[in-house]
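Notes on consecutive records. When two proteins share a document, each keeps its own sequence and its own token line. Never mix them. Below: protein one.
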Amino acid sequence: MGRLNLDLDGLRTLSTGVALGSFAKAADRLGRSTSAVSAQLKKLEEQIGAPILRKAGRVMVPTAAGEVLLSYARRLLDLNDEAVAAVRGVDLEGCVRLGLQEDFGEIVLTDVLGHFARAHPRVRVEARVARNADLLGLVTAGRLDLALAWDDGFDTPHSHSLADLPLRWIGAAAHPELARTTDRGVLPLVVFDAPCLMRQAATAALDRAGIAWRVAFTTASLSGIWAAVAAGLGVTVRTEAGLPGNLCVLDPAMCGLPELSAAGLRLHRAGPALAPAVRRLEDLLCDALIRALPEGVDRGMRAHISDGGGSSAPREEREKRDAAERAPGPDAIRR
């Protein structure tokens, strides 16, 4: 009996659908029709000889067999993607200089840079974690090739918007009631040293709502923000990116806090044209952010990746392609 080769496209669909909590969203993100996604999942079930999904309310969740398959799928896909990157970039060399906000340190430093270093050992990566003004100044001076920064109204000549991330009130997970505990009716805030985009968003929202506030703790580091909030010194305003497990997003209505807007995320380039190694790191960075950030905030990143060779074909074209892939014959090659 021959060895069974699992369908990697199907495994990617399974992994994406479970991660998003919706296979309709997975179809859209992967550029496939819903009927093609259903066919892929059915093929996986036929291959392993057991159901991999079951209904739980209005969503589909993995069965016991599906959970086992999913754990292997993620590892297989990671290895597949790393192998493709390594082969395509076997001749890449040089240096890439990347700057980023602390919020994305865990996503970028542990995932993207580790992946990139293994796939492209001849490329040297220099990474710098800094605040917005420093990052933009370094890009403008040509000392950074790429910088991931919040949109604070100051732009560089070669940048584009990636996403708008909702701002959230953040409090201690162990003591969410602290958000309603004020010092003589004054809300204590934990914030970055001024100037700070999110500090301004918090105080402006409180002023509009007529809620008194005071700065209870300031720091120049995000780790200091997280520690002070966890200790119950006050609440802060950030996005959910990189949120530690000992903190939680507060419900504004329950805590008597005003609603907040969103923070724009921009990718800045040192120039209009990128060296191949820089472009490869940029693509990996955007892909990692798509996986890590909440669904609904990735439109700009998907469009950017499409510009670099991804697929954003209209649904009619995708459906024609999917139909061709399902048709029998030597030309029906699965992509």
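Protein two starts on the next line and is unrelated to protein one.
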Amino acid sequence: MRIVIAEDDALLREGLALLLRAEGLDVVATADAPGTFLTAIDEHRPDVAIVDVRMPPTHTDEGIVAAVEARKRQPGLAVLVLSAYVEQAFATDLLARGSAGLGYLLKERVGRVDEFLTALHRVADGGTAVDPEVIGQLLARTRPDSPVSRLSARERDVLALMAEGLGNTAIAEKLFVTDGAVHKHIRSIFAKLDLAPDDRADRRVTAVLHYLDDQRK
């Protein structure tokens, strides 16, 4: 796995590089600004980019903008975005552009090495990884009149794990239920969110975006 890291904090940037190299992964370049990051993408054609949300010069959304541009330049590039805080609009914008090979983690997750590496590999394999803390805060703030309010507590648990990128078997293991029970809950989620079986979009992703998008209204 070839990786480019874009992070303006030198300590975190070099720490990430050391961690990943110690795991046998190939960090081909690091960057401290959007311009040098995009240059590295063009030059090295990595498999995965790890990008900080807030980068110079304004430290607002430069990382998200650069990540979107990187995927335009290299379609299929997996991107794992890191943020110090839960920023609903950024998470929603990123996922709304297509969730395959995308992740959004809080920086504190990096310290939990196994969880961080699991998310990185999931994104590299084309999956989606959204930080559990992000999911928890968004679900807690769901408005009473939103479609997600129709879901039962167990269905919201299943939806949160779907948003983390887990498949049915992994969800079953987390919740200590059978695969069949998870399948039943997911069918109910789709029905309550009015997601038709013939919907051309990925219904799992659309279900997650329902409550992410709800936070922006």
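For the record: The chain has ten helices and six strands.
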